[in-house]
Design brief:
With about 250 residues, this protein is α/β, with parallel strands linked by helices. About 30% of the residues lie in helices and about 25% in strands. About 5% of the residues have low confidence. Bound molecules: adenosine-5'-triphosphate and magnesium ion (MG). This is Aliphatic sulfonates import ATP-binding protein SsuB 2.
Amino acid sequence: MATHTGGLTATVPETGTAAVRISGLVRAFGERRVLDGLDLSLRAGEFVAMLGRSGSGKSTLLRALAGLDHDAGGEGELSAPDHVSVVFQDARLLPWKRVLANVTLGLSGADAQERARTALAEVGLAGREDAWPVELSGGEQQRVSLARSLVREPQLLLADEPFGALDALTRARMHTLLARLYERHRPAVLLVTHDVDEAIALADRVVVLDGGHIAADLPVDLAAPRRPGTPEYAVLRERLLVRLGVEVPSG
Ligand SMILES: Nc1ncnc2c1ncn2[C@@H]1O[C@H](COP(=O)(O)OP(=O)(O)OP(=O)(O)O)[C@@H](O)[C@H]1O
Ligand SMILES: [Mg+2]
């Protein structure tokens, strides 16, 4: 387990089963406390989706977990695994490197190329290893980004609205792909999304960030396949929308 300091108290979880443990986390920019005493734990292999209004601090929390928030002041306790990968809304590929080189970037070992090829095949991009990023569609670029994250076999995958920029059909395909990759690799996942249906479709638990802390934490106890239309789905969806401050028409 790595611990992040810099205003934070470093801790190591006692049990081997927690992938993430956050307690009393404060992150502030100047006087503004964006995260204000936030508590959250993820078990190893658990898939948690996070919803929250724009500006509620979701990306700030992910940056803290990734150890990328050196510009924020903070306190509290936070522990995360040693191997963390991050996927952002934009794929952030290096345009001057071919697809395969984008995936092997920073990988070591004699089998790095082979592992990268396997990862690209897993996301449906076998045969595109020598393409330039600019030659790929947005969805394909995001699949390269997923391959780049998963080839590192992270214990924790942080995803910040990874499908937010994609059209609805591509997004639905990416849901299926992510669910399959998750089943195969089983990292703990913290997925930030604005899409309540995406959260319910993919996650074991959905949390809502509001007022600087976790304002709701609901398990997704729905039988697969989780399709809108069942009463249980509708109840959970409405509870989440209400927590997000969305007025749900009655009737
Ligand atoms: N480096 C920074 N300097 C100053 N303020 C910042 C910085 N980063 C974030 N903030 C502020 O912290 C608040 C939370 O930002 P954050 O990006 O975490 O929100 P978010 O929940 O991810 O929003 P969105 O859904 O729009 O992506 C915002 O008000 C933002 O302006
Ligand atoms: Mg954000």
